[in-house]
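Q: What changes when iron/sulfur cluster is included in the input?
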Amino acid sequence: MLETSPFLSPLSGPSFKASQEGLVHVRESIEKASVYTRDGSVYESATGLLAPPRIGALKRAGYTNPADTTLNVSNMGVIMHQGMTSSLRFSLAHLPKDSYVIEERFHGKFAGETIGGQPDLMLKVKGGWEIWDWKFTTATQRAKDDWHGQLNIYARIMEQYGRKIVGANILAVFRDWRDVRHAHKYDSPFTVFNIPLTWGNNDVEELVVIHKKADEELPPCTPEDKWERPTRFALMKSGSSRAKKLYDTLEEAQLALGNSAADYRIEERGGEPIRCDRYCPVSKHCNQLRGI
Ligand code: SF4
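A: The predicted holo structure follows.
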């Protein structure tokens, strides 16, 4: 019997108290949800094609981190995703079977390689098909370039199946919607971003070529690839742990310090490569991260 819910604490560490039996089941379910199995005939998935070429090349060469079975943000997204998909199967069950497709893998050929794509939902509508994908995100999120790319790649793949795509949407679910700071932005934790379908086959082919070059010579990730937060300079009042203001350069902070009372100081806030530290699936094999 569980002494405390595993969902209230990490699945390891001193604070974790649970029966071994419960732990095995919980770990297995997270592992199943978080491990993606790649079809060997597929060169890359749509989302993989949009990731930095260095990540793609390392993954294709077999250098991936071991499956992370902790309840981190990515795995939470996968689990919530599965919940959405299950309820969709139930709610669309009354429609004719040929009017929707839920989470099926499709493949298209671009620049001689097979690219895989798995839209969360394809729905038959007037004049063709609509693509839908769910994203678990924060209420401050705007439509991302990656979402645009992903749905456009799906549309190009579907064209190879003779399916005309007339619309593409992201259903964004805000996991922090209850946060009072965002309460004024949306009156629901769900919103829909319409994604313009602007890509031609050449746009997908360009990405394939970039990845194939990375297979031959591993390129470095750029600060943008690494989601690097730049170093900033905080103007701090003595005795306070909160910055009065943050500045992009030391010079700007020094100028502000000169105009402030004597009990202020400048604190450097180091830059952080967020993707490397928290989200990169190959970080344990990356020499660039280790500075080698
Ligand atoms: S750890 Fe960072 S630098 Fe290395 S592949 Fe991942 S994102 Fe790129």
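Observations recorded in class: The chain has two domains: 7-216, 228-290.
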